[in-house]
Amino acid sequence: MTISFTLLVALIGVALLFDFLNGLHDAANSIATVVSTRVLKPHHAVLWAAFFNFIAFAVFGLHVAQTVGKGIVDAQIIDPQVIFGALMGAIAWNVITWRYGIPSSSSHALIGGLLGAGISKAGLSSVVWSGVGKTVAAIFLSPTVGLVLALLLVLVVAWSSLKLTPMGVDKRFRKLQLISAALYSLGHGGNDAQKTMGIITVLLYSQGMLGGEFHVPFWVVLSCQAAMALGTMSGGWKIVHTMGSKITRLTPAQGFCAETGGAITLFMATMGGIPVSSTHTITGAIVGVGSARRLSAVRWNVASRIVVAWVVTLPAAGLIGAAFYELAALLSR
Question: Which InterPro entries match (predicted)?
Fold first, then answer.
């Protein structure tokens, strides 16, 4: 189905709106620890994160964009109504969870919306199960890997700081946390912005605007990175509060371990083309550093509510995406 240029531009605008909200919603993942440890003031932290969000395209390839564009639902069934349903499902779920300060996954909201709209159009046969399998596995693996890496880093930090006073440890890691926050923001920008790149690219592909070959145009890369960076600059303070202080209290050394463990996890996933959730990753890492101190240091009731949101996100965004697809299909008849 070929659409007008005006409608194409409008759909790309909706995609970039989602990317902006992704940055707004997931700013907490990049800056919660560095804000809660008072290494940076909130507004300085979002500028720091936004810069590294933006330059991520220069560091990573576009493997995640390829996965989202071709590896979730069959690219042949993609049309403007499917894209609209996917984006609206993700945007609606992001707004709901942001309103209530719930750190759900923007990434999985988008994938859930895409699955819901795609299945609504063409049934289960439209699903690329290998890509969905990797994404679902990442729901469990990314927080687990983040947790384990953060625990290991806590041990390394403790061993390397034996001869330092508590004030000396604090001073060292206040500086190092600037680097770990930058690395985490880089990983966040590299993985999350690519999901919107994949959506815009598959829309262009469906309209025959890529010359028959699926590739991500450079202007799409720049616009998606810029939209996410602007969203990050706008902050997401309710979620920052949940991530930075409600799960567990953090010192600069613990913040460094959580951010570094999360960053390594995101780097590995992005280079492997796996669309993971930065929210899941940093939550697992924060729980890891809290548990290293003592199990009671983690507010498990808060952590359990976050896990429930992870499980609900895919089906909830999928149902909303399916409803918006049906509405768009009805209006276009």
Answer: Phos_transporter
Q: Which amino acid is at 30?
A: S
Q: What b/e readout covers 243-276, taking b as 16+ CB neighbours within 10 angstroms?
A: bbbbbbebbbbbbbbbbbbbbbbbbebbeebbbb
Q: How far is CA 136 from CA 103, 175, 211, 290, 322, in A?
A: 18, 36, 32, 26, 19
Q: How many CB atoms neighbour CB 187 within 10 A?
A: 31
Burial tier of 215 (Cβ tally within 10 Å: 0-12, 13-18, 19+): middle
Q: What is the dihedral of CA 267, 270, 275, 278, to 10 degrees?
A: 30
> Are the beta carbons of 224 and 19 closer than 8 angstroms?
yes
Return the structure tokens found at 162.
């034996």
| pLDDT confidence of residue 27 | 63
What's the number of CA atoms in the CB half-sphere (13 Å) around residue 172?
15
User: The pTM is what?
Assistant: 0.81
Q: At residue 98, what are phi and psi to the nearest 5 degrees?
A: -65, -40
Which residue, 23, 9, 31, 64, is CA-closest to 274?
Answer: 64
Segments of the chain with pLDDT less than 50: 243-245, 247
- Residue 59 is classified by DSSP as T
Structure tokens, 111: 């994938």
Radius of gyration, alpha carbons of the chain? 20
